[in-house]
Amino acid sequence: MSGGGHASPLHICPHSSPRVQFSHPTKGSEELVRQQGGGGGEGDLAMPLTCPLLRVGAGQDVGRSCILVSIAGKNVMLDCGMHMGFNDDRRFPDFSYITQNGRLTDFLDCVIISHFHLDHCGALPYFSEMVGYDGPIYMTHPTQAICPILLEDYRKIAVDKKGEANFFTSQMIKDCMKKVVAVHLHQTVQVDDELEIKAYYAGHVLGAAMFQIKVGSESVVYTGDYNMTPDRHLGAAWIDKCRPNLLITESTYATTIRDSKRCRERDFLKKVHETVERGGKVLIPVFALGRAQELCILLETFWERMNLKVPIYFSTGLTEKANHYYKLFITWTNQKIRKTFVQRNMFEFKHIKAFDRAFADNPGPMVVFATPGMLHAGQSLQIFRKWAGNEKNMVIMPGYCVQGTVGHKILSGQRKLEMEGRQVLEVKMQVEYMSFSAHADAKGIMQLVGQAEPESVLLVHGEAKKMEFLKQKIEQEFRVNCYMPANGETVTLPTSPSIPVGISLGLLKQEMAQGLLPEAKKPRLLHGTLIMKDSNLRLVSSEQALKELGLAEHQLRFTCRVHLHDTRKEQETAMRVHSHLKSILKDHCVQHLPDGSVTVESILIQAAAHSEDPGTKVLLVSWTYQDEELGSYLTSLLKKGLPQAPS
Amino acid sequence: MDPECSRLLPALCAVLADPRQPVVDDTCLEKLLDWFKTVTEAESSLLMLQENPCLVELLSHVLKLQDVSSRVLSFSLRLAGIFAAQENCFQYLQQGELLPGLFGEAGPLSRAAWTVPTVRSGWIQGLCSLAQHPSALHFLADHGAIDTIFSLQGDSSLFVASAASQLLVHILALSMCSRAKGHSGPVGGDWPACAQKIVGHIEESLHSATTPQVTQALNVLTTTFGRCHSPWTEALWTRLNPLVACLLERDPIPAAHSLVDLLLSVVRAPVFSSSDCGLWETVARTLSCLSPTQAGPLAVGILKLQHCPQELRAQAFGVLLQPLDCVLKAMAQAPGLPGLLDGAAGDSMMEDTLLSSKSACVGLLCRTLAHLEELQPLPQRPSPWPQAPLLGAAVTILRFCDGSAVPASSMGNHLCGTLAGCVRVQRAALDFLGMLSQGTSPQELVTQVFAVLLEYLKSPDSSPTVLKKAFQAMLRWLLSSAKTAGCSDLSRHTVLVLRELFPVLQKRLCSPCWEVRDSALEFLTHLSRNWGGQADFRHALLGSEVPKLAWQLLQDPEGYVRASAVTAVGQLSSRGLHASPTSPEHPEAQQGLLSEFLHILSEDSEGFPRRAVMQVFTEWLRDGHADVAHDTEQFVATVLQVMSQDLDWEVRAQGLELALVFLAQILGQPDPHCPYAVALPKAAPPGLLTEVLQTLCRVRLFEFVFRALFDCDRPVAQKSCDLLLFLRDKTAPCSHPQEAGGSPDSASMEATLQRWRAGEQGQPLGDLEPEAVLAILGSIDLEGLQGMLAKSSDHMERSPQSLLKDMLATVHVLEENEADCY
C-alpha cells in the first residue's frame, strides 16, 4: 500500500486572500495512519494510530476568506469568499490548487460558511456549480435564508455593470443553495461517521456562527467574523470551554482601539438630523442586508423619539424579504430586541417606506437607503448623481468601498468626478464615512481565546503588523503557540490525540490470575500484543494475537559465552553455577537438569571444557527474547566469576 | 501612454517611494501592473522609461531604501521584469546596474524583506516576465538565480513554490528554444548549459528519498510536457523515463498523484504520438503498481486518448471496472454468473480496499462511478461498452445504500453495512445511473432501474440532494424509454411507471423541505414540456392531484418554489393541463391563472417569481396561448403596465423581450441569427405601418421602451436601444423627420425624453401619435447610444487615469477606512 497520494499539502486562493490550510501528517506518520493512498479523506482509517500533525497556512489581509483544514485526514473548506476589488478571475479563489488533488467532491468532506457576507460566501455558487463541488455545504438557518439574496444582488450588479456572460446565474445560486444543510446553534452535526461540526453564536451579523470541527479527539474552532460586544440588534459571541487543538480567529481589529459604537451611532444620527433640518437630502448607500437593517432600527427609533416627519425610504425591493428574515430569526437577535418583540417587532418599520424612483426628484428633505453599497451601479449611483451638486445634501457611506467605485473616489476626497462623454460631476454634497462594522477588537479576541482555551491560536483576516502585536500578547498571556502565516504558507501543528484501545478479556483474566488486583490510583504496566483489525485497536495476549492473525510463532534466542577459570569437571562447574544462582535469585525457579544444564526461567546455561585451556570452562548461556532483561543480568553476574567453593 | 497618465505618474512614483505613505490596497498595485503590461505590449518599454524617468527613479530608490514596504518592493520587482522583457530595455536597465541590484544576490535576496512571501513571489514573477530573450538567460546564469529558484521550489509559501516551478519550466523552454533554432533537439548529451543544470536538478530530485522533492520534480515535468511541444521534449522524456520508472520500484510509490499527472501530461503531448520512448510500458507498469484509488485517474485519462495501444486500453478499463465487478460478485447468488470482468481473478488489492474501512470503500466507489460517468458519453469510450453489467452494478449499489439488497456473500454483507444510508455514494450512483440512460439496455434491467428510482423517490430516508438526483435520473430514463419505444404513445411499461410516479410526485410537492418541492416542480416542468402532448401522460397527470398541488405552490412561502411553480403551471397551461379546467371547483381556472400571474407580477416581493411570470407570458405570446390570442393587444398592454415600474431590472429586461416578440408578430420576424440585427431590414408597407404604430401607441409600448432607454440598469437600456433600432429600420421609409420634427406633439415628447435622460422620470409621456414617434425615432442617436451602452457602466472608473487618481487621492485617507470590511 502506498500513502503517497496525500503527501502534498493542499493549496487554495493563490492571490491576495487569507488562506489557511491544514494538511496531513508528515510522511513517516502518514504511512502508519493511512491504509489507502489517493486524494481525499476517504482513504483514512477511522482512528489515527499515531500522533498526526495538523498543517496550517493562513492569510494576512482583509479580502476573500477561504480556508482549508485537514484534520485527521478529513478535508474541510471554511468559507468560500470573493474579493470585490477585482473584476476578473482574481475575485474568486483559485481552486485549481485543490483540484490538483483530484475531484473536488472526492477530496473535500464538506464546506462550512460562517456568515452571509460576500467576502465569506461570494464564491460559493462559482465553486459548487462552475468548478464542480457536489458535496454538502453547512451554514446556519439565517445564513441559508439570507445568503442567496446577497448572491443574487451581487450577480445582478456584476451582470448589470459589465454584462458579464461567464458569471453564475440565478439557477446556479438556487442549485447551490439546494446543497446546503442548515444547522442550529449548539447542535452537533455528524457530517460522516468520523467528522462532526457544531455551531456557536458569533454576533457580527444575523446568523453568523463560529464552528467547531471535530474528528475523534482532535478539534479546530473557526471563528469566522465575530463580535464580543452586543450591538443594537445582535448579541455577543460565545463559545464553551471546548479546548480545541487550534483556534482560527479573525483579527481585523487586532490592535485598533475604536471609539464606542454608541458614539458612532450618535454621530450618525446627529449628521442625518442636521441635514434634514436644513432641508437637505441624505443618501445612505447600503447592501440589501445586514448594516441596512441596523441603521433602519437606529433611524426608526430616533424618528419616533424626536417625532420627525421627514420621509425615510428604502430603495431596494428586497427590504421586505430582508425584514421578513429578521423577524423570522428573532431568536438570533439580542435580548432587547427579543423582549420588545412581545410589544412590537423592531423590524416592522413605521417611518421607513418603499422608495419609488420618482421620489428622488421630490422637493424637500428625505433620507434614502439605496443599493448597492459602494455607489458602483444602479439605483444608489443614480440618486447620487442627482443629488451630488447640492451642498445641502449628504451621502453617508457606512462601509468599505473598493477602488474603482464612485464610493471609493468620494471617500478619498475626490470632488470632481469624470463621467461619460467628458462630463464632470462636481460633488458639492457632504460626504461622510461611518464605520459600523462589528468585529472583535484585541480585547474581544483575547476574551474568546480565554473562553475556548485552545492549545494553539492562528490569526487570519488581518494585517501582518497588527497581527504580530496580538500574537505576542496571546503567547504571553495564555502560554500557547500563536501562528500568523502569510498567504499560502504552511504551518504544521502537532496534536496528541487519545487513541482508544480495547483490551481482551483473556488478557485481563491472565493478569488477575497472577493475583494482583487493580488499584484505581496506581497505574500498572500491562504487557500484551497490540493488533489492529477492522480499524480497531486491541491489546491481547501474544497467543491470542498469533491465533487471530493466523501466524506461526518463532523463537528468538540470544546466546553468549562466558569464560570461567575452573579446573574442575564440567558437571561440578554446573553444580557450582546452580547453587550460586539459587542463592542469589530467590524469586526465580533455578533448576539443575539431569543432563547437567542449569535453567533459570527460559535461560539455559551449559558448562563445557575449553578446547585449548583445560583450566578454563566455557559457560554457554542462551535466553529468549522475552527474558532478555534477566538473561543480560545473569550474563553479567556470571562474568564476575563464581564464589570460592567451600573446601 | 496617455498624456494624462504620464502627467500623474511622477506624483504616484513619489508616493510609492515614500515609506511614510503606506499603500494600503493591494488591488491597486495589481491593477497598476496590469496596466503597465498592456502599455508595454503596445509600445516600446525603452521609450516609455525614457519619457517617464520617474519610473527608473522609483526602481533605483526602492533599491536604496532599507525600510521600503514589502508590497512596494514586490511591485518594483514585478515592474522591472515587465520592462526588461524587451531586450533593448533590458540592456538599458542593465547599464544602470538596476537589474543585478533587484534580482542579484545583493538585492532583496540578502535583505530581511526576503522573509516576506510577497517579496519572494515578486522576485519570481519579475524574473518570469524578464526571461524572454537570450540576454536574460545569461543574466540568470551570471547571478546564480537558477540555484535560488531551485531552493524556492520548497518554499514555505505554496504560491511561491508553485511559481518557482513554473519559472523553471519557463527558463528550460527558453534555454532549449534559444538553442533549438536549427537543432531538432539535444544531440547526445549536448544540452545547453542552463537546460542541463535544470534537467540535472530534476534528475537529482527524482533520485531523492524525500517525497516532497520527488513531487517537485514531477510537477516541473508535468508542466513542461503540458506546455512545451517541441521535439526536444522527446529527448527529455527519453532521458528521464528510466528514472520515473524507478519510482515504481519503491514501496510506497512516492508522490503517486503527481506521477499520474506527469504520465497523463506526457501521453497527451502530440510529440509522442509517433514514437514510444518506453512510455506505454511505464504507463502500463504504473497502472498495475498503483492502488485502485490512485490508478483510477490514470485509467480514465488513458481511455480518453485518441491513440493508445489496445492492450493498455483494456488494462485501464479493467482498473475502472474492478470495483463494480466486486460489487456485482458480492450480490451474485451463485458463482459463475456474468460479471464485468469474466474470467479475471478477483483482485485482492481491490477487495482489501473495499473491505478496509468505510471511508476507503466509499471513496473508491464514488471515484469509480464518477470516472465511468465521465467516459460514458465520449465517442472514444471502450467498445464494447458493458452497458448491462454496469447498469446492474449501479442498481446494486443503490440497493446496498437503501438497505434493500440481499447480499449473498461475506463481501456483500460487508458492503451492506458500509453503504447503508451513505448519501455520497447515493449521489454518485444516481448521477451515473442517469448517464446510463443514454445506452440501450435489456428491458428486465430497465424495469429494475425504474423500481429502484421509485423506491428512492418514495423513501422517507432520502435526503433532498438525493431526491433531486433521483428526479433527474428518473427524467432521463423516462425520456429515453419513450425514445426507444419509437412510437407516438408511451410504452405500457412507462405508463405503469407513471401511475406509480404521480402519487410520489404529489407527496414530494407537499414536502416540508423547499428544496424537495422545488426539485419536484422542476421535474414536472421538464416532463410536461416533453410529454405534454402524449395522451397517456395527460391522462395519468390529470387523474392525479399534481396540477392542483402545483397551483397551490404559487402561494409557497419560498420565492424559489413560487418561481418554479409559475414555470410549471405556465407550462401545464400551455399544454391544456392546468388544474382541472372542467372541474366544477375551477370553472374559470384558465382566466384565473392569468389574473393569478398578473397578481404575482404586481405583488410578489421577490424577483424570481416575477421573472418567471414574465418568461411564461413571453412564451405564451410567442406560442399563441389561447388566453393571449383572445385579445393580444389587451394582454400586452396590461402586462407592460404592471411590470414597467418593477424594481428588478431583469423583470424589465424580460418585459422588453415580450415587447420584441409582440413587435415581431405584427411587423415580421427580426433576423433569426441575430434578433436585434439592423442590417438589411425588410421595411413594412406604409399603410400597415401606421396601423401597427397606432397599436403600439395604444398598448403604451413606446412609453415603456423609451423609459427603458434611459434606465439606470444598463442591460435594460441596451435591450431597449436594440429594440428601437429594429423598429426604426422597419419604419425607415415612412419616417420624415424634417416634416414631423416641427410638430408640437413631437417637441413635447422630445422635451420629456430629455428630462428622462437627465434622470427625471416622473413625468408620463402622454398620448402619442405615430408621426411623433417616427420623428423621435429618427432624431435620437440610437447608434451612438448603443456604442456607449456597450461599454461597462464603470468603464470610466476602471480607466488607468482613474486608477492613478484614486491611488494618489487615497494616500491621505484615514487608515481605519481600509481596515474596515463588509
TrEMBL record, chain A:
The keyword Cytoplasm appears for this protein: yes
UniProt record similarity statement: Belongs to the metallo-beta-lactamase superfamily. RNA-metabolizing metallo-beta-lactamase-like family. INTS11 subfamily.
Coiled-coil blocks: none
Annotated source species: Galeopterus variegatus (Malayan flying lemur)
Gene: CPSF3L
Protein name: Integrator complex subunit 11
CDD domains reported in the protein's UniProt record: INTS11-like_MBL-fold
UniProt entry keywords in alphabetical sequence: Cytoplasm, Hydrolase, Metal-binding, Nucleus, Zinc
Cofactor: Zn(2+)
Beta-Casp domain span: 292-410
TrEMBL record, chain B:
Key words, A-Z: Cytoplasm, Repeat
Location(s) in or outside the cell: Cytoplasm
SUPFAM superfamilies hit by this protein: ARM repeat (SSF48371)
Keyword Repeat carried by entry: yes
Segments crossing the lipid bilayer: none
Keyword Repeat: yes
Primary localization: cytoplasm
Superkingdom per UniProt: Eukaryota
Family: Belongs to the BRAT1 family.
Name of the molecule in the record: BRCA1-associated ATM activator 1
Species per Swiss-Prot/TrEMBL record: Galeopterus variegatus
Gene that produces this protein: BRAT1
